[in-house]
Amino acid sequence: LKEGSMTMAVDAFCIEPIKCGYIAGEEIVQIWGPGKMLLSLGIAFCGAFVSLTTTQLLKYVNNRYWYFVLVCGAGLAVGFNTVWCMHFVGMGAIQLQGGMLSGDHPEIRVTYELSFTILSGLAAWVIASLGLHIVAGRSVENRQKIDKELCIRLGCAALLIATGVCIMHYMGMISCTGHFHMHWRPGVIFASAVIALVASGAGLVILMLLPDTIVTRVVAAV
Q1: What is the H or E stretch that residue 15 is in?
Q2: Please, what's the largest Cα pairwise distance for the chain?
Q3: According to a count of CB atoms within 10 Å of the terminal CB, is the N or C end of the chain lower?
Q4: What is the pTM of this model?
């Protein structure tokens, strides 16, 4: 859905102007390879499962050092693996090939600007870690309680994690470079943010309010 928030159009200059039959400014056909798309979903699931399993273990950790290590590890699994790796593996499935007006078909190469690519991953990691800390950061004796405070923490954590997902994704999209420019659709951007919020909240609620079993973590990861 987030990739659907933008369209790509050809720049005024082609790599090889004589051979390039694209019309400057025309929309480019986006073709998605199903193999890498499925791989990206598998990567996202694995990261979410590891993160949720680690978050459950935080209920029983007394030592501040190991609490910090596990929170950062859980944030790394969801921020770097589930969000960052899923995004760029999924973007590897895209082919920009075919002009809407000209009908020309030379492939337009997509590359990624290094600094934004790295920053997007760090942002997802840090924000996800903070969100998971909000969920698990109560005193040890209260970490297994289901009460009003937990519900407030779940809401705040879901909002923060969803924000991290959106920041990472759109920083990652800004890092895309090539002989094209992108046009954004505000309505789809808003819908993608709502979906990120609902998905984050649902996963955390399932994890924290249902019995701690492998099935629960699998459902929450999905």
Answers
A1: none
A2: 71
A3: N
A4: 0.80
